[in-house]
Amino acid sequence: MKFHAKLAAPSHKKIRLKDFDPAETYGYEKGHEKDDRDEALMAKTTARLDELQYMLYAEGKRSVLLVLQGMDTSGKDGTIRHVMSGASPQSCKVTSFKQPTSRELAHDFLWRIHKAVPEKGNIGIFNRSHYEDVLVVRVHKLVPKSVWSERYDEINRFDKYLTENGTTILKFFLHISKDEQKRRIEERIANPNKHWKLSEADLKEREFWDDYTEAYEDAIHNCNTKHAPWYIIPADHKWFRNLAVSRILVETLEKMDPKYPTPELDIARMKRLLK
To answer: Which DSSP string corresponds to 55-80?
Structure first.
């Protein structure tokens, strides 16, 4: 199946996340008789991504930006770790956007985002992004509605500007169920090696689940454009989440079809000189 077509958020109607099953795997399985096939597909995808990333870097004319958003424990860190496991750190950069600093707050909300946009030839990954300014800012009423509601159009213009200047944008909403989130938090509590990932904020934010759901639905609906599409990734199963994001990235790079640049050197002459 073509993952980008199957998982692309519909652009013709209002998004209701309850209509999307976070446990869906579209016939792919883990731990069953199809396991070997799906493991082989992931290995093949990782190898292909490495090849395409190298070609994109060599070409040096375009870049790719992955935006990862999702509820707490939806797996943004895990997606980055697994999807980019075969990528070269030379041309791949991850930027995590946390609470803005005082210096960042002294500028417009897109200032810190623009600084982190990947250079030509590179793949950039945003762990959270400019969309926080229509999500957490909205849910916790950090600015009035008259401010955050205008940001949808500002974000769309910004994304379009990036694409017009050679950056292909892929936006992934990692769709996790509330029950699965609870299970993952309980797992962290039970595992001393994962206590460092815990915070009381994780539990506090669960109280705003419905508010975040509504905010995500509006963000996806209002900012799902042809030049910067949203993908709704079922994320209850970590292995399928990783496979889906990997496949969409590979499918996108294959469509971009990066090429090795034509050498400026006289290769035949170099061969003669090497003798």
So the answer is: HHHHH-S-EEEEEEEESTTS-HHHHH
